[in-house]
Amino acid sequence: MIIPTANRKETEAIIKQAARKVFLQKGLAGARLQEIADEAGIGRTSLHYYYRNKEKLFNAVFSDNFLEIKRRIPYQQEEDLPLEDILIQFTKEYFSNAIKNPELDLFLLNEFCARPESMLNLIKGHEVTQFILQAFEKSIQKGKLKGNAQQHFITFISVTFFPFAAKNMIQQMLQCSEEDYLQYMQSREDYIVGFIEQYFNTQIKK
User: Fold this and answer.
1) Vertex 186 angle, CA 183 and 190, to 5°
2) Which of 51, 123, 133, 143 has the fewest CB atoms within 10 Å, i.e. the most exposed one?
3) Mean pLDDT, rounded, for 8-34
4) What is the pLDDT of residue 113?
5) Which residues contact 180 (CB under 8 A, 6 or more apart)?
């Protein structure tokens, strides 16, 4: 079967969009190729022509999407940027993107719990982690920050990532609607920037 290149690209894009929706709802383990084929509006045989198994489809769908996470960090281009500026810039980029796609963070949390090594390899997460850790370590070495770099890293990831990963729990605990939750997250960016500035001032005065 020979499919014109234009049609192949269009069909593959439709498959990826459908797969992304199903994977975000059910994760890799819970998703079925037939569900993805139905969502894409194509037959199972056609889906197999493009992707032989759901693992390959999963990797194809999310390897590009996870680049979004890496683009939130100004590493490589601005390695000498002060730590406080790195964290503030990350926070602004993170919240700007996460508000548009809040389900991605919960999905990441669930998949990391189920398949930590595979997920880390897929997103090449060590690059991001090491950059932030090294930025904390450099700041400590220069006397601009006190304490343990790993503990600072955990605190920072908690205040940025957790509110989105725990979206459903937060909505239930605060008894808030979807609209209210998004408003909280939109105002939270300024809250976290203020938290970072205060965090550094407190550390320096110790």
Assistant:
1) 130
2) 143
3) 89
4) 84
5) 174
For residues 12 and 94, membership in a common domain is answered with: no
Share of the chain above pLDDT 90, in %: 29
Total structural domains in the chain? 2
pLDDT tens column, 137-195: 998 998 888 889 999 999 998 998 899 989 989 999 999 999 999 999 989 999 999 98
| R_g of the chain, CA atoms, integer Å | 20
For 42, the domain range is 5-64
User: Which are the contacts of 58, defined by CB distance < 8 A and separation ≥ 6?
Assistant: 19, 23, 28, 31
How is residue 205 written in tokens? 């005065």
Residues 6+ apart with CB under 8 A from 92: 189, 193
pTM of the model: 0.73
174 shares its domain with 95:
yes
Query: 129 and 78 share a domain?
Result: yes
Cα end-to-end span (Å), the chain: 70
